[in-house]
Specification:
Blueprint: H1 6-37, E1 92-94, E2 102-104, H2 108-114, E3 158-168, E4 171-184, E5 187-196, E6 199-211, E7 214-224, E8 230-235, E9 240-243, E10 249-251, E11 257-258, H3 261-272, E12 282-288, E13 293-308, E14 311-320, E15 330-336, E16 342-349, E17 355-365
Parallel strand pairs: 11-12
Antiparallel strand pairs: 1-2, 3-4, 3-17, 4-5, 5-6, 6-7, 7-8, 8-9, 9-10, 12-13, 13-14, 14-15, 15-16, 16-17
Length: 369
């Protein structure tokens, strides 16, 4: 048996690893090429070889959570008003050592809290506080009652009876009438009527109070022949004058009269302030009728002497003439100063010429109630 020589041993020692490495490299290349280009064939195994079973399971897919239904849209929030504008901020001048001066406009409170170096601040004027709300002023005292236009002194209670003469449709007819004036403390009541040929052609009533301005009516009622009764109201609470026969209203300020009370207001003025009666002068008094009201321009015609019931009376003659174009009645009064200024004659004249004339026949004093 021959033994290899030393050079052969060295060659065998170096060649074997090289050959093994080359073979391994070739096997890897062949295997890689087979895997990438050919399908993998099943590997035969001995019958008695153990079987290892690998089961690939897909990753369980967890269903995505179902989002809850969206809540119904809420009504839009009320629009907020922008915050009030802040007052102009004071200017803070801060000086940092070895740094340029920085001028910034920030609230003084923030500047003092965050400054870590010496701060030189310009004097800041205090913010003006809102002035306290003034205390409510006391309610003004009610306005005093208007000063009376005249000095008045209502006459004592009495009943005046009259002889009546009327012109109707071109015919003169005669009749009788009466007016009762009653005082009861601070109140009064007037009732009057005129009758012709057994027919009452006019009846009226006025009631109210007596105040510093004289006669102050509250209600006036009037009934003419073949016409419905009308009512005129002098409302104290509402300070209005209203009518049952129309929708007109007028303010009630004091001193207003109705068609019955005006006579006794003139008598009150005559008894209380006769110096106001000058021939040719006039008295303006607001008088309410049955449908409306207006200022009566009552002219003081002057003094006249009348013979009534076989007796002569010195009287003052007053005339209320309607304004031009008006269809209202012309009214005349004769008051007797010697008989407490009672109306001793009354006359109403229509625009068509018809008239109602009432001349005193007697005066009867009445007891005060």
């Amino acid at each position: 048996m021959t033994h290899p020589s030393i050079p052969e041993k060295l060659l065998q020692r170096w060649c074997r690893p090289v050959v093994i490495a080359i073979v391994a490299l070739l096997l890897h290349v062949i295997a890689f090429n087979a895997i990438t280009t050919h399908p993998v064939h099943p590997v035969l195994r001995p019958d008695n070889a153990p079987v290892v079973t690998l089961q690939l399971q897909a990753e369980a897919v967890v269903p995505a959570p179902v989002a809850p239904p969206l809540p119904q849209a809420l009504p839009p929030a009320p629009r907020k008003l922008p915050p009030p504008a802040l007052p102009e901020l004071p200017v803070i001048i801060a000086a940092v050592p070895d740094s340029p001066v920085i001028v910034t406009q920030v609230p003084a409170v923030i500047a003092s809290a965050t400054a870590t170096t010496e701060t030189i601040a310009a004097p800041v004027e205090p913010v003006a506080q809102a002035a306290p709300e003034p205390e409510p002023e006391p309610a003004p005292a009610p306005a005093p009652a208007p000063a009376p236009a005249f000095n008045t002194a209502p006459p004592p209670s009495a009943e005046v009876k009259y002889d009546v003469q009327a012109l109707r449709d071109g015919k003169i007819v005669y009749g009788s009438g009466k007016i009762s004036w009653r005082r009861s403390g601070e109140n009064y009541l007037i009732n009057g009527e005129a009758s012709v040929l057994f027919f009452t052609v006019l009846s009226f009533q006025s009631l109210g109070s007596l105040d510093v301005q004289g006669v102050a009516p509250l209600k006036y009622s009037e009934k003419r022949f073949r016409k419905p009764e009308t009512n005129t109201h002098f409302q104290q609470a509402n300070k209005l004058i209203s009518f049952s026969s129309s929708t007109m209203t007028y303010p009630r300020t004091g001193g207003e009269q109705d068609r019955a009370s005006i006579v006794w207001q003139l008598a009150s003025i005559g008894r209380g302030d006769a110096t106001r009666l000058v021939p040719g002068s006039a008295l303006d008094i607001f008088v309410a009728g049955v449908r409306d009201a207006e200022i009566w321009h009552i002219k003081v015609v002057g003094q006249e002497t009348l013979t009534l019931g076989g007796e002569q009376f010195a009287t003052w003659h007053f005339l209320r003439q309607p304004r031009p174009g008006s269809y209202d009645t012309q009214v005349e009064f004769w008051l007797a100063p010697e008989r407490d200024w009672y109306p001793v004659r009354l006359r109403q004249t229509e625009t068509n010429g018809d008239y109602l004339d009432m001349s005193m026949s007697s005066i009867t004093p009445l007891a005060e109630r």
